[in-house]
Amino acid sequence: MLPLSSWPLAERQRIIGVFTDIDDTLTTHQAITPDALQALADLKAAGLAVIPITGRPVGWCEPHALGDAARGVPRWSVDAMVAENGGVAFVPDSLKQIDLQPGYQLGKQLSKAYYADAASRSVNWLKMQQVAQRVLREVPGAAISRDAAGRETDIAIDYAEHVLLPPDKVAQVVALMQSEGMQATVSSIHINGWYGTHNKLEAARWMVRLLFDCTLDNELDHWVYVGDSTNDQLMFEHFPHSIGVANIHRFDAQLLHWPRYEAPSERGAGFAEVARAILEARDA
Q1: Judging by beta carbons within 10 Å of its beta carbon (0-12, 13-18, 19+), is residue 114 exposed, middle or buried?
Q2: pLDDT for 98-139, tens place per residue?
Q3: Distances 183 to 55, 117, 176, 222, 261 between C-alpha atoms, Å
């Protein structure tokens, strides 16, 4: 990785949109900090597209996509928010797309879009619950993530949020999911498993196509991805402008594909530094 300060000015000036992970990239100790929240707002105010893509469940994302004053959750300044590694997303309710469902939160309307059709999701849900029970039986110490109630298109095993699993047990869970034909990935806190062809990269393509009627692969040089862990590797590999916040070094031993650049700071502070690098280039 190169330091963020090495990112050429001319390349930063071409950026029109930002994809970002959430846990330990935007958030710090599972909450967004004021500097990261302001960074989102500043990027949007400057006219950039901002789209978080996370392994968190759609139920967890809903108050952040809409804001929830009763719970003290501020609304994030984003164009869309993709949950469950691309299985489901919140998108503007003005969009018309097959399999959109109305959502609700404090009277504000939004649209929930699914990557797969309802029949496929129903079949996959039953299969995933069976795999989850197998994990609990066969991997000592494994536990379903506490945010499981908000999940619709994947399952998550906690290994670093409320439960600590050693690396060999994490690898065992991943292998078990894969043996059942699932996709499996490891974030900074959870092991996620799902059926289907979606992933973070396919989600990014989906969002650019849905929101902007463009093909992401034709304009990758105008987008940046920010992440922090092994489940961001596909994005690091694919995006010429990819950046890791400094806590990515937690995964030095597991990474096969690294981001191009590294922010000086960890988590939300690192994301804020990335936003400043982009915005300062616009003013240069």
Answers
A1: buried
A2: 344 444 333 345 678 999 999 999 999 999 999 999 999 999
A3: 13, 18, 10, 29, 27
- Measured in residues, the chain has a length of 284
In the chain the beta strands, taken as DSSP E runs, fall at 2-3, 17-20, 27-28, 31-32, 49-52, 81-83, 88-91, 100-105, 108-114, 143-144, 155-158, 183-186, 190-194, 223-227, 242-244, 261-262
Residue 73 is predicted with a pLDDT of: 83
Residue 244 and residue 20 in contact, taking contact as beta carbons nearer than 8 Å: no
How are beta strands 108-114 and 100-105 bridged, if at all?
antiparallel
Q: Identify the weakest region by mean pLDDT among 60-74, 83-97, 119-133, 175-189.
A: 83-97
* Predicted pLDDT at 108: 42
